[in-house]
Amino acid sequence: MALLAIILSFTATGNAYASRCYNTSQFEAEQGLRIHSELMVIGLTCQLIPGYNGLYGQYQQFTHKNRTLIADYENRLINFYKTRGSGEPTKKLHTLRTDIANEISQHAIKMSVTSFCNHFSPRLERALSMDQATLQRWARQIWPDLKTSTPLCREDEADLIKEASARPRHTPERKYVRR
Predict the structure, then answer these.
(1) Average predicted confidence (pLDDT) for the chain
(2) Nearest to 29 by CA among 98, 121, 105, 93
(3) How many other CB atoms sit within 10 Å of the CB of residue 31?
(4) Over 90: is that where the pLDDT of 34 sits?
(5) pTM score
């Protein structure tokens, strides 16, 4: 009986620890939603700048093309928030997405809108041309200067680093530092 209590204690501790960090799937989900939010800000910010017509339309095409994956990413994070005991997991997801969009918008303001559009607008076309597997690899990329809202579990981080080093890098570079 005491042995069973010890085993259950370790299982509960492991689950509590696991909810304090992202597994690979949850990490990919937040990064994927960050990419989606970034593309939205690019499209909205640049749509009225001469020479950048149609960027918001490209964002909408990207969203439509990847709607199932984006919904899956949202569900992964909602489920993560539920396992953490968040009382309002959907609200927490919306807050995360708003925070990400605001952060990217602030970056656009600091750069000047024209510079931001010159630098980041090609990302929309490139993202739109990606197939789902390529987009998912981009979302699994670890960016040392960009932290997710919840850290990646160490064992999963090691796996992603190993995966990234085994293939050439074909994803857009991130050029700004978060926080």
Answers:
(1) 83
(2) 93
(3) 22
(4) yes
(5) 0.80
Q: What is the pLDDT of residues 98-140, one digit of tens each?
A: 999 999 999 888 998 899 999 999 999 999 999 999 999 999 9
Cα–Cα distance, 45 to 19 (Å, whole number) = 36
Based on the number of CB atoms within 10 Å of its own CB, is 12 exposed (0-12), middle (13-18) or buried (19 or more)? exposed
Q: Encoding tokens for residue 113? A: 């809108």
Dig out the tokens for 116 from the structure. Answer: 């931001």
| Phi and psi, residue 152, nearest 5° | -80, 135
Nearest CA to 179 out of 116, 99, 121 is that of 99
The residue written with tokens 């987009």 in the block is 135
175 versus 172: which is more confidently predicted?
A: 172
Distances (CA, A) of 52 to 63, 79, 113: 19, 38, 11
